[in-house]
Amino acid sequence: xxxxxxxxxxxxELTGADLVAEPSPELVETVEAAMARYGVLVVRDAxxxxxxxxxxxRAFGPLELPSRVPGAARPIGKRAVDxxxxxxxxxxxxGEIIPYGAEGSRLAxxxxxxxxxxxxxxMPTKWSLLLGHExxxxxxxxxxxxxxxxxxxxxxxxxxxxxxEDLVGIHDFWEGRRRAGLxxxxxxxxxxxxxxxxxxxxxxxxxPYGRKALYVGxxxxxxxxxxxxxxxxxxxxxxxxxxxxxxxxxxxxRRHDLVIWDNRCTMHAATPLLSNDYRRDMRRTxxxxxxxxxxxxxxxxxxxx
Length: 305
Ligand code: SIN
Description:
Elements: E1 2-5, E2 12-15, H1 25-38, E3 40-43, H2 50-58, E4 63-65, E5 86-87, H3 103-106, E6 125-134, E7 144-148, H4 149-154, H5 158-164, E8 168-171, H6 173-179, H7 188-193, E9 199-202, E10 204-206, E11 212-214, E12 220-223, H8 228-242, E13 248-251, E14 258-262, E15 266-270, E16 281-288, E17 294-295, H9 296-299
Parallel strand pairs: 2-3, 4-17
Antiparallel strand pairs: 1-2, 3-14, 4-16, 5-16, 6-14, 6-16, 7-13, 7-15, 8-9, 8-12, 10-11
Bound molecules: succinic acid.
């Protein structure tokens, strides 16, 4: 196996890995070490099934299962895949293409603002592993952008680092979507279907290997104990700093690419599809640092409320 850097700051490609077989201790060790160094890891030609995708993911932590509120329709009318996988493609429940910008794709377009998966709930998130089962040609768009939030933190002036060191960010799924361009009122029904609001996480996260990272992805809307405007402005300022081009790596998808990213120290953003002629079938596992294999809805006790 070889780990080849793809960007001056972070992101690498792993070659020579077998993801079809049971993950070997050597593979697990190589991936853990590469993720600690690079934060984003691309594996090409990973022609694996949903079962193999889940098995590989579980070698690094328990799966976060998608939250499904009993009785609620799937919020975006998208393809139903294995219940342990998140769906990030452009296909509907009949496998037909949902045109970019149509009703069924608008909520997902919120992912075009840089964010970290799962920051809108309280589980101890670790990585996401997104597999391209069907991908459009490069000229049709649909790239994914990544930010190194560790390098962005390192480059902050010392005074700003001291100012934010102990601050706590407020994360809210629907308010985050509003900032990403979702129009209209946030209704009680929307809050019922995706019931995560005002969850708190530190603005600065310390990684297990000691580096610090800004944690201000798109679901972060303010700062605990600060006036809403002042907190929102601080978050926007840090977000603008972290998303400068110099911190961004662009991934052009090929079929069977598996891209792994660390949600604790990177942000990512989808980019628009420029054509409705192509299928983009993307399936994601997300794993936690520890804990039972369950959904945030269950883990946060929301099922009982
Ligand atoms: C995501 O934001 O999790 C998906 C990114 C993508 O589909 O490009």
